[in-house]
User: Fold Mitochondrial import inner membrane translocase subunit TIM22 from Caerostris extrusa.
Amino acid sequence: MPSFNKTGVLGPMGAKEHRKPGLTDSLTTGMGFIFGSSICILGQARKKDVVANHLIGGALAGSIWGLKCFMQF
Assistant:
């Protein structure tokens, strides 16, 4: 089991040492942007505020994650 040092960061082979913050943060930011903007655009275009807008927005945001796995950045 990995041990914590004085700063709270995991020691050798710890999870915090292997994180790639640039890729992960930009990916989740992009997913949030797609989700939020697609809900607004769909609501205005369809003139309805229904659950289907959120379902489609979630599918579009999930496609960003799928592209990341497919392209292997």
Remarks:
- The radius of gyration is 18 Å.
- The mean pLDDT is 77.
